Structures are given as C-alpha cells and as structure tokens.
Amino acid sequence: MTFEQDKFIYDHILVRFGELSTKGKNKRDFIKRLLTNVKNALRDYDKLTYERTHDRLYIMLNGEDHEEVAKHLQQVFGISSFSFALKVDTDIEAIKQTSLKLAQQSDAKTFKIQARRSFKQFPMISDEINRAVAGEILRNTDLKVNVKQPDLLIQIELHQYATYIMTDKIKGNGGYPVGVGGKALVMLSGGIDSPVACYLAMKRGISIECIHYASPPYTSQAAQDKVLELARIIAPYQGHIRLHIVPFTDLQLAIYQNCDESYAITIMRRMMYRLAQKVAEKQGCLAIVNGESIGQVASQTLESMQTINCVTDMPVIRPVACLDKLEIIDISKKIGTYDVSIQPFEDCCTIFTPKNPVTKPTRKRAERLESRFDFEKLLDECIENMESINIYPKKSITEDVEDIF
C-alpha cells in the first residue's frame, strides 16, 4: 500500500498485551497501568480515544497519523504487538468488501485470510469466514492464496458488536507495563552498560529514578550533560526520569588520601552503594539497579561484588550481569544510547583509576581502610548538596504528565 492509502484507510490500532495474559487475577491492574502508560506516551495526539477489554486495547485514531502514533507505541512496555485496523460491522458482506479493498490496494501477489471469531453465535465458523473472504478476493483480483508465506496477511477479529480487519502485525517491546513492579534507583554513569540496565529494568515493569555521581572539577560539565542526554533518551519508556546528581568530589578525594590505591575503587563503590541506599529510601525505591557485568572490570569480580555489596541491605539488581559486552552494545544501539555513551568524557569512576586495582578485596580490609576517616559526615554532605532534576523526552512534555512513580 502507498503511504497515502494507508493514512486514508485505517481508523484504529489494535493493541495486544502479550505477557500480561499470564498474570491471572492481577491482569486487570496490569491492563489499567498499561492504558495509563499508553495515554502518557500518546499525550500529544489529543484526538485519540481508547477502549479497553480483557484481552485487547483499541485506539481510535479519529484522523491522527497511525504511523506517527505507532512510533510512540513501540516504546511502551507491556505491548506484545499491535496492528493497524479497520472497524466494520459484524456482517459477512461488510467483512468481505473491506478485506477486498485492502487486497486491491496492496502490491502483494499472494495472500492469506486468518479469522478469529470470539462471537460464537455468528452463523459462520472461522474456517467458513476464511473461505468466504478468500473467495471474494480471488474472484476480483489476480492475487493467489499462499497459506505458508503470504505477501499479504489479512487478519479478521470478529466480535459481537464490531469486527476489526488488519494487514500488519508490528512487534511491541514486550515485558510488563512500567510501574507494576515497584520503583528502583539506577546508578547511572556515562558508560554503555547502565543505560541498558535502565531499559531492562523498565521492561520488567520497574519504574526508575537515577543517581549520578559527579566530581567537579575533575569531571566536566560536558560529562554531566552526557548523562542528562542519556536520561532523556530512555525517558520515553516511562514518561520521564528523575535524576539525582550527587557531588562526589570531597568524598572521592578523602578516599584517595586515606586508602591504599589498590583498594580505592572498592572503597569508592562501597560509598556509592551507601549513598544509593540513602537516596533510594528517601525516594521510596525498593531496590538498587546498576550496570555491573561479571568480570568486566576489577570492581566487578564476584569477590569485589561481595565486598562492595555488603554495605547495603537493599536488593541490588544487575540486569546485564551475565551479558557479554557485544550483547550489551547491541541493546544500547537498539535503544539509541550507544553513540552518546561512547563520547569521550570521563566520569568519577575513570578519573583516578589505579594502576593495579585489587580484584579479590576482602570486607575486613575494606572496613579497616574506611576507619581512617569520617566518611559518614561526607556521605551526609553529599546528600545535603544533591541536585534532583526531572527529565522529559522533549520540552513539550511538562509536569502534568501523569506520574507513574
């Protein structure tokens, strides 16, 4: 079909829930949350109206551009797939004529009809509907039937009061609607891994806030702007991102002044976890999320993780822990963060990298080094001077977005 024909003909988008169907009695709450998230994602399209059923969401386009709407739907978690659709009366002649029109406007050479009849009182079973519609197309076009690999698949969903006829099935993001899994705090650096961790956490229904550790003047404003841009790129997946920027300079300098160089990264990460827990508790987050990948650097060996993790009693989720670097890069390219992440601006984890960081640190040794200075006071100062920013996908979206936190 040509673009203009597409724009003219479709009046609905039919949304399928996918994984939500496994949630039993919680399904209603999940669908309600999904509808809220869809409305937030499509808030700039004020002509749209919505109808929710137990297994589908119907979006009435009312003249809006279905291709533009589709771009935003593909960023909403909880959607298995969606299709552009025409709504017609549940009448075999209306179904046949509309399906014929779709076939005539197509450049396809082969087709298949796939009917799904939920209204069991309709006088024809699904196979009879398939045959009747296919016969109409065969009599009036040069198209041939191919049930295995058709160029054009016409799907018909027949209900009591309306029937929806579709020719496309567009893959959604899957997962659970953001917000149904509680809220977590993500440790967001300027690297490749942590934005991917954000994305994967949101895909499991977790709404997120982010914390970033800045060490001016050793880290530049450009490095902070890079993190803001990363947050802006991932913001559409949940509406907006609340980013907490923690001034880390004094604490980081104290670590390097009082601790052995080989343990500096270990102690620094322990302090980051302590700060993350304080912010998480303040913001009502139930877990900490980060982009650690096992064995990738010295602070991400299992021994290091154990020594670092023990300073918090909050759950720590590591979505990319068992992915290799190429897999993480592939996801970062998919979600659009890769090109920003590789910009050469140093963060606080790289500015004072020791030559020989310990790969098997012990808790006892870390605690003995920390006892050399009053880190609790420095932690409190970090929290007191923390800056919190709400980041939206684009400037036209303001604070009246319905809050999913």
Keywords:
disordered N terminus, 9-stranded mixed sheet, 38% helix, alpha/beta, 6-stranded mixed sheet, 405 residues, disordered C terminus
Describe the protein.
With 405 residues, the chain is an alpha/beta fold. It is 38% helix and 19% strand. It contains 14 helices and 15 strands. Strands 1, 2, 3, 4, 5, 6, 7, 8 and 9 form a nine-stranded mixed β-sheet that branches. A six-stranded mixed β-sheet has the order 14-13-10-11-12-15, with helices on both faces.
Total helices: the number is 14
Strand proportion = 15-25%
Mean pLDDT: 89
Stretches where pLDDT is under 50 for at least 5 consecutive residues are 1-8, 395-405
Helix content: 25-40%
Shape: elongated
Strand count, sense and barrel status of the largest sheet are: 9 strands, mixed
Q: Indicate the radius of gyration in whole angstroms.
A: 26 Å
How do the helices and strands follow one another from N- to C-terminus?
A: HEHEEHEHEHEEEEEHEHEHHEHEHHHHE
| Counted beta strands | 15
Distance between the termini: 41 Å
**Structural class determined from secondary elements:** alpha/beta
Nutshell version of this structure?
With 405 residues, the chain is of the alpha/beta class. The chain is 38% helix and 19% strand.
Write the layout of secondary structure elements.
Blueprint: H1 3-9, E1 12-16, H2 27-41, E2 49-52, E3 56-60, H3 66-73, E4 81-88, H4 92-104, E5 110-117, H5 126-140, E6 144-145, E7 152-158, E8 163-166, E9 170-171, E10 183-187, H6 193-203, E11 207-214, H7 221-234, E12 241-247, H8 249-258, H9 264-283, E13 287-289, H10 302-309, E14 316-317, H11 325-335, H12 338-341, H13 363-370, H14 375-384, E15 387-391
Parallel strand pairs: 5-6, 5-7, 10-11, 10-13, 11-12, 13-14
Antiparallel strand pairs: 1-3, 1-4, 2-3, 4-8, 4-9, 7-8, 12-15
Helix pairs in contact: 4-5, 6-11, 8-9, 9-10, 9-14
